[in-house]
Design brief:
globular; three-stranded antiparallel beta sheet; alpha+beta
């Protein structure tokens, strides 16, 4: 079983995810969440034991992701 701090999970229009380390950068990994006690949340799919994920300030990476996905019509 894998559990992460609740603040590690980001919620987007596509569902829940965590940021996983990919070399020198981070990528949003979709996950399926299980039980939670409000502090720790079980990940039932998408992350394996030993995977490196961002556990603090994930919302900052989410904000950056939102900026890069934004489109501008001029």
């Amino acid at each position: 079983r894998v559990a992460v701090p609740e603040e590690a999970i980001v919620r987007t229009s596509r569902g829940a995810g965590v940021f996983r380390a990919s070399g020198a950068s981070f990528e949003l990994q979709p996950v399926v969440v299980g039980k939670s006690d409000g502090r720790w949340t079980e990940i039932t799919e998408g992350v394996l034991p030993g995977d490196s994920v961002v556990v603090a300030n994930a919302y900052l990476l989410k904000a950056e992701l939102g900026k890069s996905e934004a489109t501008h019509d001029h």
